[in-house]
Amino acid sequence: MGKEKEVKPDWDLAGEMCMLSIEVYETQEAMNIDQYGYHLHEFIEDDTVGTQAVVAISHEGRVAISFRGTSDFTDALTDALSIKKRWLHGKGFLFWKPRVHFGFLNAYLPVREKILSSIKKLTAENRKRIHITGHSLGGALATLCAADIKRSLKLPVTMYNYGSPRVGNKKFKKLYQKLVPDSFRFVNDKDAVPTMPKIAYHHIGNLCYMDNGGEIQINPGFALRVFDSLQDAVGFMDLEKLTDHLSSHYRDQLEPFTKKILPLFGEARETIENKIDDLEDAVQDIRKKVEKYV
Fold first, then answer.
1. Which of 112, 136, 264, 275 is most buried (most C-beta within 10 Å)?
2. In the chain, which ranges are continuous DSSP H helix?
């Protein structure tokens, strides 16, 4: 048998996608993606569910979609209590059908048609590869969107997400892996969000694990994953598990691997600094909410 092909992310693309996943937290007026080599094609949002996404085009013609994550750490870590809902595509019997997190699907559906319409127009004459990204909740929405575009529009898709929670059941994972094999999910050391939801949910794509020594391991072995699982069981609400989830920490971990990472400034920096200031209060709020269910 031949040697299995080593899977590696495109580090420059990972840097670009990370910066887009940070920039999408801004309002449309404050957004400045031109500094990262992109211009805004369409700003998409739905106030009823709070979902925000941008469709952008790089100066080289690359098409990208970036989803905003949640700005509320409490919601990010307690959303795991939600039930699953049948996914848009795939076959199966009863509960063996592809199913995804109810809250994530409800956040995606209100913007789905606008996104598909925008991508159809951009690719009408040229079937370009679509690059999709997001951080936190945005990473979960990027996962759903990647599978949807591949299945609905039959376009080649690449997906990079950062600090994403698990999205669906084992059947959804199997379907997703076939549709979007070019997927990379980055997990920063002790980030707690990717460990949720815990029961009957499965991760997709290639794991890019950012350890506390500054290295990024691609699809690390079973022993490391077991060790991390034991860590997750101890001190679940430690402050470090929340600070490691910050998009700025993902940016800092990626910086040595690519020249595409740029300094944060303006409202993006101010937004992240405000989050850090509020983290200790967020930890207390999360503990109070979780205590209701344990």
1. 136
2. 11-23, 73-78, 102-122, 137-153, 170-179, 222-233, 239-243, 247-254, 267-291
Higher pLDDT, 55 or 31: 55
| 210 vs 190: CA distance, rounded Å | 9
Given a contact cutoff of 8 angstroms between Cβ atoms, the answer to whether 141 and 51 are in contact is yes
C-alpha span between 273 and 285 (Å, rounded)? 19
pLDDT attached to residue 55: 98
pLDDT at 12 over 90: yes
Is the Cα dihedral 161, 82, 113, 203 positive or negative? positive
Domains and CATH numbers, the chain: 11-291 (3.40.50.1820)
**How many residues are listed for the chain in this entry?**
294
Quote the pTM value: 0.83
Helix (H/G/I), strand (E/B), else coil: 90: coil
State phi, psi for 86 to the nearest 5 degrees: -60, 135
| Residue 244: other Cβ atoms inside 10 A | 22
DSSP state, residue 94: G
Distance CA 290, CA 211 (A): 27
Alpha-carbon distance 138 to 161, whole Å? 8
Cβ atoms of 247 and 25 within 8 Å: the answer is yes
pLDDT tens digits along 243-275: 888 898 999 999 999 988 776 544 455 555 555
* Predicted pLDDT of residue 112: 97
Q: Which of 250, 242, 174, 252 is nearest to 208 (CA)?
A: 250
Q: Can you give the pLDDT at residue 231?
A: 57
**pLDDT at residue 90 is higher than 90:** no
